[in-house]
Amino acid sequence: MLLSKEQSGIPGQINMNNYKTIIGMEVHVELKTLSKMFCGCKNDPFHAPKPNIYTCPVCLGLPGALPVANKRAIEWTVKLGLALGCKINLFSKFDRKHYFYPDLSKGYQISQYDMPFCYGGKVETSYGPVGITRVHLEEDTGKLIHQKVDGRGVSLIDFNRSSVPLVEIVTEPEIYSSAQAKEYAKKLRQIVRYLDISDCDMEKGGMRLEANISLKNDKIQMTNDKSITNNKIQKEELPNYKVELKNINSFRFLERGIEYEIERQKEILEAGKTPDQETRGYNAEKNITYIQRSKESAEDYRYFPDPDLPPIRFDDRWFAEIKSSVPELIDSVFNRWEKNYKIDRKLTELLFETSGEAKKLDKIFFCLSNQKLPIDKFVNMVVHKKIKIDLFKQNVEEIVSAYKKSVTVDDVPDEELKKFIDKVIRANPQAVKDFKAGKIQSINFLVGQVMREAKKKIEFQRLQQLIKKSIS
Ligand SMILES: [Zn+2]
Fold first, then answer.
1. C-alpha 195 to ligand 1 mean position (Å)
2. What residues contact residue 143 under an 8 Å CB cut-off, 6+ apart?
3. Is the dihedral angle over the CA atoms 299, 300, 301, 303 positive or is it negative?
4. Which residues have a beta carbon within 5 Å of ligand 1, which is an ion?
5. How far, in Å, from the CA of 204 to the mean position of ligand 1?
């Protein structure tokens, strides 16, 4: 039963609506390395012409096959960790996580248990920072396809995705609303794409979202507990259950699924019960979450270090190399543009994805600014497709000159035009004399000269007026 705020405020009645939502997130991202995580097979499951063609004894889990770790995937994981402000374990290892499922050919997944490559980072959201617990590297599983063959329902397995490098980013339980969860996930995707290490194609499963949701009765807010005023909840104060919302493939579904869970759990708690510890999925058509499996207790994956893979040690040189590959952080880029060029982040966000593209934009903005051309207008026109410019195929000169042509007199203040007009008047005394003598057409000549000087398409009427004013 849900009470309105007014009802729950009646003295003597238990305040039932005072729940705080606590969310921790786990996000999986497939890295776009050329080859898979532990073998030389092509890493391109989304474009494979046929199932099971990018496979070998290693990623099929055949006995005796030996894995070799993909160096690039390790470097990209650390790169992401550094961009998220994480600390790095300079000595690390891979572990086997055992469980049985048909899409897991070896009977275990190679992952990282107690020594993830990265730990202790942070992502800023407009609701406050979200702590990053860890970023680790593992391998993806194959893909199960359920379909009908000869009228019989069967499950088929495609191993093209088996052992594709997969990064998992885990947050602290420091997300307090569905809106914040959505913002966090979007921001994370933006950062990953910016680093150019994954396309994060959510529809195809290149980025998969998971939220652990629970509600906490928030009477504790009445205390002067510092951890609460800091909007942080200490681990020992966490609710004694959590519901895992798994395999969400869109930001909207994430938000809706969490909203649904909050209401569902609220009802259970208000009935005096505790929601079951379980894994749930989200049904977009019905806009509900549904139980996938219940968790009686913590699963035993029998983790142990993979004996086939040597531990990883980052020496100074290798670590310095990775560090130097981290571009200027995306927040810093947006802040700089906002400060230097007064352009809104919400718009510039729409213009690019990778750091390489951001660097190109930087050059364009710099050039526009040097030529005193309005940058906010440029951004607006490009975002709203009012100008035919390909930011990343055309070179800077082409882009700037295309924009220049489209800039009309409205963008140039009178004072600036006046400079050109004065120059033209000085250089063409005869035309000025002719105009004063009543030869009206000669003003057209002067207008043309000013346009040539200004190198801009200028509104004829306004320019004519300004010239007349200067002459008389
Ligand atoms: Zn392979």
1. 26
2. 45, 103, 157, 158, 160, 161, 205
3. positive
4. 39, 41, 56, 58-59
5. 21
Task: Tell me the C-alpha distance between 372 and 38, whole Å.
Answer: 53
Q: Let me know: does 464 contact 447? Beta carbons within 8 Å.
A: yes
How remote is the CA of residue 326 from the centroid of ligand 1, in Å? 29
Give, for all 472 residues of the chain, the pLDDT tens digit. Answer: 444 444 444 444 444 468 999 999 999 999 999 999 999 999 999 999 999 999 999 999 999 999 999 999 999 999 999 999 999 999 999 999 999 999 999 999 999 999 999 999 999 999 999 999 999 999 999 999 999 999 999 999 999 999 999 999 999 999 999 999 999 999 999 999 999 999 999 999 999 999 999 999 865 444 444 444 445 555 558 898 999 999 999 999 999 999 999 999 999 999 999 999 999 999 999 999 999 888 756 678 999 999 999 999 999 999 999 999 999 999 999 999 999 999 999 999 999 999 999 999 999 999 999 988 889 999 999 999 888 899 999 999 999 999 988 876 566 778 888 888 999 999 999 999 998 888 888 888 898 888 888 777 677 778 888 888 888 7
3-state SS, residue 38: coil
Residue 298: partners with Cβ closer than 8 Å, 6 or more residues away: none
The overall pTM is greater than 0.70: yes
Residue 118 near residue 134 (C-beta atoms within 8 A) = yes
CA of 416 to the centre of ligand 1 (A): 65
- Cα of 143 vs centre of ligand 1, distance in Å, is 15
- Calculate how far, in angstroms, residue 276's C-alpha sits from the geometric centre of ligand 1: 39
How far does the centroid of ligand 1 lie from the alpha carbon of residue 238, in Å? Answer: 42
Name 127's Cβ contacts closer than 8 Å, sequence gap at least 6.
176, 177, 179, 180, 183
